[in-house]
Amino acid sequence: MGLKVGIIGCGSIARFRHGPEYKANPHVEEIVFYDRHLERAKTLASLFGGRAVETVEELYHDPKIIAISDCSSNDAHHIYSTNALLNGKHVLCEKPLAINVECAEKILAAQKRSGKKLMVDHNQRLTKVHQKAKQIIEKKELGDVLTFTTTFGHKGPESWGVEKSNATWFFKKERSSLGVAGDLGIHKIDLIHYLLDDVIEEVKAFHATLDKTDENGKRIEVCDNVVCALKTRKGRIGNASFSWTYYGFEDNSTIIYCQNGIMKMYDHPHFPLLIETKDGEVIKYELESIQTNENQTSTGVIEAFIDSIMNDKEPPITGEQALTTLKVVESILDGKHV
C-alpha cells in the first residue's frame, strides 16, 4: 500500500520539484494538491495524476494523508507547517523555515508536541558533490579548512516564478521578508554549516536593492544583493555573495581553502568538483551538475523525506538546523550578533 501525501502551495517549486519527485517515488501512491487559487491546484493534479481540494482543512483532516509538503510563500510557513504537524502530519517545509526566528520557533514547538518528522528543503546538502566534499573535509585529506567563499546568484525569481512577472511575491516585504538572503543566501549559509560541521557566529554584511523593480516600476521592498564576511565558531573565516541580478549564467559555486589545497565546487564548467593540491596536482571528479532553474533534475529531497518516514529516522535536514541557519540570515539583514 503506497503513501498518500499532500502539497500546500502550487507554484513553481511544487510544479518543478515536489510534484515530479513525489510522482517518481515508488512509495507514493497519491498526491493531493491545495492552493488558494484552486485552478493552480487542479493544474498540478492533472500534471501528476493527483487530485485537488478546495480547502487546506481537507488535507489536515484526511487520515490517509501521512505527510505534507509546505510550498507556500515564506510568510505562511509558520501557519501551514504548524497546523499540519498538529494535525498529525509529517512535514517537509520549503526554505526558509519561516520569515523570522520567532515564527520558526512556533513550528519547532509544534513538531515537538506532535512527535512527527519535520524536514526543511535545504537541498544543497544532498548533492553528490557537496557530500563528497564533506567526506574529504572530515578526513582532512587537504588538512584543516582555513577560509571559504560561496556564491549563489541568478537573474531573479521573476524568471522562475509561476507568473514570470515582477509582481512575484518574492519581491513583497510582507510575504518574502528576507529577499535574496532568504531565497538564495539561506542555502549557502546552511551549506557552510554542513560542509564544515561548524556554525557561523559573526557576520559583517552589506545588503541593498540595486536593480529590481516591481510591477509599478518602483524599487522592490527587499534586498536583491548581499555581500558579507563570515566567521565560524571554530575560527574559519570566509565571504559570501547572494544576488538576484546575475544577468548571465547562474553561479552556485563554493570554494574551500585548506592547508594543503583548494576544493572547488560547481565552479568549473565540466568538473563539478575540482581539487588543486599544494604540490600542483589537479584532481577532477565527474559527478552530476547542480540543479538550476533551467536544468531541473532530482534533488533527492523527497526521497530522503519519504525514507525518514518509512524507516522512522531523523531527516537529513532538521528544523533545528534550519533555525540555526535562519538566525545567521537574520543577523546578515539586521546587523545584530548571531
CATH architecture annotation of the largest domain = 2-Layer Sandwich
CATH class of the largest domain, named Alpha Beta
C-alpha end-to-end distance: 46 Å
Low-confidence sequence ranges: none
Number of helices: 10
Strand content: 15-25%
Radius of gyration: 20 Å
Strand ordering within the main sheet: 8-9-10-7-11-12-13-14
What is the general shape?
Answer: globular
CATH superfamily of the largest domain: Dihydrodipicolinate Reductase, domain 2
SS class: alpha/beta
* Number of spatially distinct domains: 2
The residue fraction in helices comes out at 25-40%
Note the main sheet. 8 strands, mixed
Order of helices and strands: EHEHEHEHEHEHEHHEEEEEEEHH
List how many beta strands DSSP finds.
Answer: 14
Compute the average pLDDT: 94
CATH topology of the largest domain, what is it called? Dihydrodipicolinate Reductase, domain 2
GO molecular function: nucleotide binding
Domain GFO/IDH/MocA-like oxidoreductase: 130-263
Domain Gfo/Idh/MocA-like oxidoreductase N-terminal: 3-122
Protein name: Dehydrogenase
